[in-house]
Fold this sequence. Notes:
This protein is of the alpha/beta class. Helix content is 36%, strand content 16%. The strands form four sheets. Strands 3-2-1-4-5-6-11 form a seven-stranded parallel beta sheet, with helices on both faces. The chain has a two-stranded parallel ribbon with strand order 7-10. Strands 8-13 form a two-stranded parallel sheet. α2 (38-50) links the parallel β1 and β2 (53-58). α2 packs across α7 (241-253), α4 (111-132) packs parallel to α5 and α6 (212-221) runs parallel beside α8 (270-280). The longest helix is centred in the middle third of the chain and has 22 residues, at 111-132. The two termini are 36 Å apart. Bound molecules: nicotinamide-adenine-dinucleotide and uridine-5'-diphosphate (UDP) (2 copies). The site of nicotinamide-adenine-dinucleotide has 28 residues, from α2, α4 and β5. This is UDP-glucuronate decarboxylase. Pathway: Nucleotide-sugar biosynthesis; UDP-alpha-D-xylose biosynthesis; UDP-alpha-D-xylose from UDP-alpha-D-glucuronate: step 1/1.
Amino acid sequence: FSVDPAAHNPGRQFVAGKVPLGLKRKGLRVLVTGGAGFVGSHLVDRLVARGDSVIVVDNLFTGRKENVMHHFGNPNFEMIRHDVVEPILLEVDQIYHLACPASPVHYKYNPVKTIKTNVVGTLNMLGLAKRIGARFLLTSTSEVYGDPLQHPQVETYWGNVNPIGVRSCYDEGKRTAETLTMDYHRGANLEVRIARIFNTYGPRMCIDDGRVVSNFVAQALRKEPLTVYGDGKQTRSFQYVSDLVEGLMRLMEGDHIGPFNLGNPGEFTMLELAKVVQDTIDPNARIEFRENTQDDPHKRKPDITKAKEQLGWEPKIALRDGLPLMVTDFRKRIFGDQDSAAT
Ligand code: NAD
Ligand code: UDP
Ligand code: UDP
């Protein structure tokens, strides 16, 4: 005999470990906004595998059905094509709020839409969380640190962001989303979590999304030159997607609000990244220098002391180990093996 208490009284009663005596624990009901995207779809895989009932809300702007198609037909999975800028009524226990284009090319494509997604979309998801008493996790970004004057970046650093630049729709949008999240926490007593995600790569990234890892990998596979912007001495830290998903789930399940940096502290210049891609795919791949984009941060590297101490989390997969896993996926997608798209 099992009863789903949440069906009668939506909300907190059903959080892990708090199930009333005598009732068998079932999986949680989890909403993943942006769940058809790169990070979201990997998170969905883990949640479904854990036995949760997962609802994906996604407008498919940068996400793809192929990323979650392997769950179609599973009664514990549901996908709703919906734009988070519009209100929605659902009943869940947890909300992972990822909906937002992440690649600079995509978020600059329609900047007003990007900021609406971050502000109005986040407001709607917080309003939803408040109504049903769900725990809410925001996927913020290392971009809140802007072009940082502190290195590596610690969560207490307030950042150096241009409020009127071409990246502001994303940077300032995410900063406002963090503000909203904390205001709902303080004002409405909402249970919230904030992750500041650093550059992440892996299978299912959009092949032509303009981000550096996807660009270099696709270019090397297609025998095109690797496009290094500027002098290539700017740095980033690259995290493999499974490490991020583990961090997001620990954050959601743990007792700490954050914000937490979730990233791999291994720091690479773009020229060093190009070398790793050459070593992995094609030692003869040429490098071509291009003009850099406006307001490009010069360096970025997370200090993850807080996540290590409070979440017991740290990344496990080094760039040279993670890159080949992504290359396998890109190779199959670029050269047309249909079976591989959703693996
Ligand atoms: P992605 O573009 O692959 O996924 C974003 C998903 O959100 C897509 O499926 C897209 O269709 C959906 N979406 C966008 N606007 C929407 C809207 N208005 N309504 C409903 N759905 C919408 O990007 P990703 O790399 O998977 O990023 C996921 C989240 O993580 C984003 O919030 C991003 O800002 C954050 N993040 C990612 C990285 C990274 O390196 N991947 C770094 C920092 C932060
Ligand atoms: N909202 C939603 N789903 C819900 C509850 C709220 O989409 O189940 C939206 C609602 O439309 C509003 C936003 O979330 O625009 C903020 O809701 P809240 O109740 O916090 O504020 P209010 O509606 O009082 O402005
Ligand atoms: N970049 C590059 N070549 C490319 C794409 C990007 O050299 O083909 C550089 C870009 O200028 C930036 C870094 O790579 O310095 C990371 O860019 P990305 O768009 O991946 O992420 P960001 O951290 O800027 O959001």
